[in-house]
């Protein structure tokens, strides 16, 4: 068994990433999804994967398989990306991978094409190390709908349970802190996104009529203000009743987390946070929340316009924890608004909702990932749940597979924003982690 030349595999992986970033696979706008699926298929087939493409509501779903061995690893990634808007805030073309000061910039450089390319580079290195073979069986599910809520994935997993059976799942994201410590997450929060709408007239009115005509923006303001308090605690009756409490092992993990809120404050210039230290970590891992994503209606141009708007809207997302069902949360929200006398505020569900997921901290696959991260990077920061959301629930609950998110992102990666980036050295470390993990799994953990 020879030692792989990781430098050569890293360079090839960066070439793959450059080619993938150039493909404008924006699922929200239906751009270049088939072309990108075909490009990813070609990359996998060149490494001996048998690739099947299945139609999705928005984009093809790819299911690939290669290798034999005592362990079956399922890898989940996605090839779609967020829109590049606003383009004027990018410092380099969004779909051209550009290196500046040790970082690589481009839409998808982190989320999720950088993760995909680094894992493929690791697989190439492992094959070189093992004489052209893989020491384990790898199944790779890559979709093109994640950025629009993965509307096809739940049914796909349910329909293809036999083909997707595995001993563990390497999830699509993860990151490294500035001090080099890897951040590993064992779950995700659920999500339901809604739009509250209120229309009280057929057209805008002169604002003098505010003396006798109600204002839809005020109604929406009342609705939003009634949903949570000043500390972010949700006030909807029954909202917390079904929450599944974290296990003792989950809570113990919080004691090892350096939450990093100071770095977050410094990076983004935050003026107000709800908590620090262990409480900060508890909230990001275990607390359900509601966010106001955007607000519209009335005059928003320069200067004043004394108008009483006819209608308005506000967009919200609820991040949920195990035990909470998105459909039930919408039901509770409707009952709450009605109780506030806000029957004229309509609730419209946006995109696909997702349930939360959490893996057992003591699962052998989880421990193998932690050990591999420790070997490559140093002591990892292990979060029982990430603060974000994704389609992990069908993997942990339908398939019964523990999922571990470990990857190459960074706290200043600007994911979903202009100037999305990865640290180039983190890509190198991500390849090394993949080699170590697959090697450990081939030896039984």
Automatic annotation (TrEMBL):
Residues annotated as domain Peptidase M20 dimerisation: 187-343
Gene Ontology MF term list: metal ion binding; peptidase activity; succinyl-diaminopimelate desuccinylase activity
Protein name per Swiss-Prot or TrEMBL: M20/M25/M40 family metallo-hydrolase
Record Gene3D superfamilies: 3.30.70.360, Zn peptidases
One cellular component (GO) term of this entry: cytosol
GO BP of this protein: lysine biosynthetic process via diaminopimelate; proteolysis
SUPFAM superfamilies to which the protein is assigned, alphabetical: Zn-dependent exopeptidases
UniProt cross-references to Pfam families, sorted A to Z: M20_dimer, Peptidase_M20
InterPro entries, per database record: Cyt/Met_Dipeptidase (IPR051458), Peptidase_M20 (IPR002933), Peptidase_M20_dimer (IPR011650)
Protein keywords: Hydrolase, Metal-binding, Protease
Source organism of the structure: Deinococcus cavernae
């Amino acid at each position: 068994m020879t030692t792989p030349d990781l430098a050569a595999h890293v360079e090839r992986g960066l070439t793959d990433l450059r080619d993938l970033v150039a493909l404008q696979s924006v699922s929200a706008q239906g751009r270049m999804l088939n072309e990108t699926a075909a490009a990813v298929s070609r990359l996998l087939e060149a490494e001996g994967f048998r690739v099947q493409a299945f139609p999705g509501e928005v984009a093809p779903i790819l299911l690939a398989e290669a290798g034999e061995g005592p362990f079956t690893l399922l890898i989940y990634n996605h090839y779609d990306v967020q829109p590049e808007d606003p383009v004027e805030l990018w410092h380099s073309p969004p779909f051209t991978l550009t290196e500046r000061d040790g970082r690589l910039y481009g839409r998808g450089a982190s989320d999720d094409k950088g993760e995909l390319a680094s894992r493929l580079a690791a697989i190439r290195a492992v094959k070189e190390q093992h004489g052209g073979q893989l020491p384990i069986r790898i199944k790779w599910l890559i979709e093109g709908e994640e950025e629009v809520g993965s509307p096809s994935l739940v049914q796909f997993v349910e329909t293809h349970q036999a083909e997707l059976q595995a001993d563990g799942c390497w999830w699509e994201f993860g990151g490294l802190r500035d001090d080099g410590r890897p951040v590993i997450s064992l779950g995700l929060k659920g999500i339901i996104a809604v739009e509250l709408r209120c229309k009280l007239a057929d057209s805008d009115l002169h604002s003098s009529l505010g003396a006798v005509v109600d204002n839809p923006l005020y109604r929406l303001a009342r609705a939003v203000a009634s949903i949570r308090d000043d500390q972010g605690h949700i006030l909807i009756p029954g909202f917390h009743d079904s929450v599944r409490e974290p296990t003792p092992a989950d809570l113990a993990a919080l004691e090892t987390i350096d939450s990093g809120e100071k770095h977050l404050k410094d990076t983004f210039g935050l003026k107000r946070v709800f908590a620090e230290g262990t409480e900060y970590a508890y909230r990001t891992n275990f607390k359900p929340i509601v966010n106001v994503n955007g607000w519209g209606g009335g005059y928003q141009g320069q200067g004043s316009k004394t108008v009483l708007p006819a209608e308005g809207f506000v967009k919200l997302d609820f991040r949920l924890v195990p035990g909470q069902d998105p459909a039930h949360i919408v039901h509770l929200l409707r009952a709450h608004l009605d109780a506030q006398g806000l029957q004229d505020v309509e609730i419209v569900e946006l995109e696909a909702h997702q349930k939360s997921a959490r893996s057992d901290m003591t699962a052998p696959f989880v421990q193998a990932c932690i050990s591999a991260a420790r070997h490559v990077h140093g002591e990892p920061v292990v979060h029982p749940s990430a603060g974000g959301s994704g389609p992990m629930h069908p993997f942990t609950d339908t398939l019964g597979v523990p999922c571990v998110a470990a990857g190459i992102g960074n706290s200043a990666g600007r994911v979903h924003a202009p100037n999305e980036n990865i640290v180039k050295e983190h890509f190198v470390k991500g390849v090394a982690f993949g080699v170590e993990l697959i090697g450990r799994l081939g030896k039984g953990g």
